[in-house]
Write a structure and sequence with these properties.
Radius of gyration: 12 Å
Structural class: alpha+beta
Largest sheet: 2 strands, antiparallel
Order of helices and strands: HEEHEEHH
Distance between the termini: 8 Å
């Protein structure tokens, strides 16, 4: 499920700074990367867990764990629409 607010945060960015190492890393690319290789959904809390540096940069830059995104995901989970 594509999240509109994440797209708004992305803009024209293709990379970001890894919050763990401080190095520049490219963002997740849905045509090149497989979601499950870089992210895991925590269905208990509605958060996205980064599994790789690409995942960490993407979660951070796109604010994928903002309060509004978590609330939306929890709603989708309750409806059986996510993950």
């Amino acid at each position: 499920m594509q999240e509109r607010s994440c797209n708004l945060h992305k803009g024209n960015r293709i990379s970001g700074i890894d919050p763990n190492t401080g190095t520049e890393i490219r963002l997740f690319h849905p045509r090149l990367d497989q979601w499950e290789n870089h992210f895991q959904a925590n269905i208990t809390f509605g958060t996205i867990i980064a599994l790789t540096a690409i995942g960490a940069v993407t979660v951070d830059c796109l604010e994928m764990n903002s309060q509004s995104q978590i609330m939306a995901r929890q709603f989708w989970i309750s409806l059986g629409l996510f993950p």
